[in-house]
Amino acid sequence: MGELADRLDNIRLHVRIPGTEIEADLRDRNNVTISFGDGGYEFLNERNLEHYLATIARLLYVGWVREYRVAIEGTAIVIPEPENQADRDYIAARSEMEVTGASADGRVEISAIGMRDPQVRIARGTVRELSEAEFLTRTKEAVEALTEDYRTKIRALKVRFFT
Amino acid sequence: MSFEDLMAHAQDLQYLAAKHAIDNREAEPEYARNGVDGYYALVIPPLFEPYSKIQDPKVYDPLIGDLRTVMAGLSNGQANADALNSNEVYPANPTLAKITTAGDMMKGWTGEAGMAFKAKFLDPFPMYSRNQYILTAVLKAGLDAHKAMWASARHDIDMIAEGTIHAFDNAGCTNKNDWNVGFTILSSLAAVSAAFLPVAGTAALTATIIAAASQTAAVLPPDIPDAPKEAGGTGEGVTALQIINTMKDGIGKLTSVIQKTEAKISAGLTTLTGNVNPTLFEAPRPAIADTPPGSVTGDKGLGGHE
Fold first, then answer.
1. Could you read off the pLDDT of B132-159 as tens digits, one per residue?
2. Domain limits at B157?
3. Which residue stretches of chain B are H helix?
């Protein structure tokens, strides 16, 4: 609706895991597209995939925070220093807040505490049983579920500390 | 965002507030009577409506222009401090020198009215014109101050609306939803203080007026205790009601700064006009003007020429 909302919707991120052809794009706040490069997916096992997806999640989160700060520049929004006990309690609770998101079939699950150090769990046999496209759809579902969980829990925390 | 769209922003805010409250299933006692939509329809537009009627500050320009013309006519090249605006320069008007010339020519005439004409009309003329110049400068400062005040008020109310829309846009984000709008109107308030303090405090005007008429010292305009400097919220901004209440509070602060600025302007003008003695601005009618033609050169008139 507002201009800031448009700016946030329009944030585009592109990240690449160093030393690999694995890249990811983010748009519309939580729409993530991953590409493994030619023939990359079939040669990975679940453990490698978990590691790579976690790295992508970390890079995207860092990129998002940076772009968010750019987007609010020139607006009235300020990122405040904590001023009272409620502020400090909120920040502490936020850094311990656990969020998770899983694909509809449960094969891909992403979790993080305070959005730091994301962990990814991929069910064994997934690479053999799912094509690359199917796997990416599942991953997308997990990312959407994660961001939804994050939104809901942040809102609950704010309600708890600031209303 | 722009001021011209202020009421459209008010509608956007109505929509954003209701949507935010409904999306997040916020239940507040305030919504009981008219529902969420009804509550914001009643609360938001009336906050902005008086502001939307603020005239374009350009309406002051022709009046300010007229006073500038008057000042240019009256200027004898005073220091800029007398113009109460350091950005404006009024070169001396050479036509005023005719009075000096006339004074010199009157020196040789010995009659009563001739001497009185020189002493009471021609000699103090520079003081009268200077007083008129200063009075005009003060009136112009009043208009300049009003113009600046309304221009800032239009800017600041627009910023409050924009800040609140941003707060709704930002409501889902991780950070505490803080927004902050610094009032530009404070700079116009400062300008008003700067323009009017000389009237009461410094030598420029008071010296002329007091010396000429033994007036009592001018009274300082009342000072403004701690005007609010900004609108915005800290620690709130989770629910639609909180966001809108922060906005309401900001608009209230802006309104109080406008009232205080207005009080300052009117105090400045009143202080001056309270000290205006008409005899300081206009010479009494010279007796020689009423001397019958037959006795112009008599002892009571111009007398003889040495």
1. 888 888 888 888 888 888 888 898 899 8
2. 58-92+125-282
3. 6-23, 35-52, 61-74, 80-83, 97-106, 112-116, 125-170, 185-200, 203-213, 240-274
Closest CA to A155 of A83, A115, A78, A97: A97
Give the SS3 label for residue B231: strand
Count structural domains, chain A: 1
Using an 8 Å CB-CB cutoff, list chain B residues near A151: 172
- The domain total for chain B is 1
Distances in whole angstroms, Cα of residue B68 to Cα of each of A64, B146, B149, B243, B300: 55, 16, 20, 46, 41
Our CA-based measurement puts residue A21 at a distance from the nearest CA of chain B, in whole angstroms, of 32
Identify the closest residue of chain B to A158 by CA–CA distance.
Answer: B238
Maximum distance among all alpha carbons in chain A?
A: 54
d(CA B289, CA A2): 73
Residue B298 belongs to some domain of the structure: no
What CATH number is attached to the domain comprising A31?
Answer: 3.30.1310.10
B2 touches chain A (CB under 8 A): no
B176 vs A5, A80, A159: nearest CB: A80
For residue B231, what pLDDT band results from cuts at 50, 70 and 90?
A: low
Question: pLDDT tens digits for B31-54?
Answer: 999 999 999 999 999 999 999 999
User: Best residue in B159, B176, B239 to probe A by mutation, most A CBs within 10 Å?
Assistant: B176
Full-model pTM: 0.79
Is the CB of A80 less than 8 angstroms away from the CB of B163? Answer: no
> Contact A139/A147 with Cβ under 8 angstroms?
no
The one-character DSSP state at A43 is G
CA-CA distance, A93 to A98, in Å (whole number)? 10
Give per-10-residue mean pLDDT for chain A (163 aa): 85 93 91 86 91 94 92 84 87 93 96 90 94 94 93 90 84
What token pair was written down for B192? 């008003």
Distance CA A75, CA B175 (A): 14
Instruction: Read off the pLDDT band of B302 (50, 70, 90).
Output: confident
More confident residue, B238 or B228: B238
Residue B208, amino acid: T
Whether the ipTM is more than 0.90: the answer is no
**Average pLDDT score, chain A:** 91
pLDDT at residue number B191? 64
How far apart are the C-alpha atoms of B18 and B10, rounded to whole Å?
12
The values of phi and psi at residue B275, to 5°, are -100, 5
Provide the domain limits for residue A56.
3-162
Q: Do A84 and B236 touch (CB under 8 A)?
A: no
Name chain B contacts of A80, Cβ cutoff 8 Å. Answer: 175-176, 178, 234
